[in-house]
Amino acid sequence: MTGPHVMTGTPRILFVTPVAPFPADSGGAQRSFLLYQALRRLGEVDTVLVSARRPTDEALAVLRRDFGLKEIVEPHPGTFTLRRLDFGYGPIAVNVLRLTRWLLGSRTTLFRSRRMAARLGAVIDQGRYDFAVGRYLWPLVQADVPARLPTWLDVDDLESEVWQSRADEAGPGWLQAYYRRIAASYEQAQRALLRRMAGGWVAKARDARRLARPDLRELPNIPFANYPAPAEPLRHVAGDDGKLHVIGVAAFDYRPNLLGFDWFVTRVWPRLRERFPRAQLDLVGKLVDADVAARWAAVPGVVLHGRVPELPPYYERALFAVAPIFQGGGTNIKVIEALVYGRCCVVTPHAAKGFEGLEGLFEAADEDSFARQCADLLAAPQAGLDLGRHGARSAGERFSFQGFARAVEAVLTTAATSTQGGMSASAPQAASAGASTPPAGTAAATTATPSATTSAASASLGDPA
């Protein structure tokens, strides 16, 4: 790490994120947007986007104007090689993928990239920042940001939790052992690398315990509808067609969402449709896979709407929502979003993580219980809508932007106070795990102007994290 830097006056903050805060059309982008807005309350914020995908010219103009975008840095090419192989390149590619992950574990993503460190180092030298705030662990590790600046981390999705959830779903056998090995590798690396961070936040309290970092503060995902002020529950608008609408909102191209909704559409929904012929499942969100889209659209009562400019009209006619998610990390924004709009949500135990104690959630762990919970809500629509309104009150209190911003401020104001007094803001140091750069291609291993930015961001498409 470079020598200690003492803050004077308004702090200058470097925000490093792999998910752009605009357009806020996914759960990950919305969290980037909200975190940026909270940081703006504390000081001057510049953004570095770590992404291989360049924003559109329109988005780039907004990012530069409203989010202080200074640089777009491509991640090391090895980072996403394995992820590309994960999406259907045949059995040979899958076997290569599995062998590589088995051998390298967390080093497929958590390694130091000399090129990235040099690019970020140049930005840091030019900007004279007081500290950095980063989303996700891997960009900070690859760019070696903690070696240059005191760094606070928004943990959000834990890779160890993602892999462990896959192991839980796989059941006994070699595939479960494979997933558990990767999860254990990430668990160990996460704890070691977090020692280099000055502090930060987790999406749910249990993650801090899992990381053995009780100092990490809970920063729950909040529905975008609650920015900047809490949303009001939506009244139910019954259509003239007499249909019983159920809504599912997600970025369906995200693997955990795709697998979960495929299970619901093909195995649970036909049972409900047989009992309730007027039931209609409205799926809202991006789905690129044409084969999956055609297969889902062929199921009676299923309507795919794709990306939509506004969600409220779809929630208004819905009786309740579903979140059939069995894998992934972090928390599912789609769950709390439904409650804020005044709609109950039928969820898996995995999707309910981080939302314990809220009214209006109905847990179901298997096909029979999921179908039963949905059928009960379809059979008594008004009772479900009443429960949804109660859930909206409890969700609005716990998951507001004001609370989100306070959680950010509580951590960073303490840091700013200590450094203003002349103390070093240096983050704790520890040996860097996986500090070598892997061979290219082998993967050794998101205040803006409300009128322009917020309106364009309001087309929430679910949680891709």
Automatic annotation (TrEMBL):
Region (Disordered): 419-465
Residue stretches of biased makeup (Low complexity): 424-465
Origin superkingdom: Bacteria
Pfam families assigned to the protein according to its UniProt record, in alphabetical order: Glyco_trans_1_4
SUPFAM superfamilies: UDP-Glycosyltransferase/glycogen phosphorylase
Protein name, per record: Glycosyltransferase subfamily 4-like N-terminal domain-containing protein
High-level lineage: Bacteria, Pseudomonadati, Pseudomonadota, Betaproteobacteria, Burkholderiales
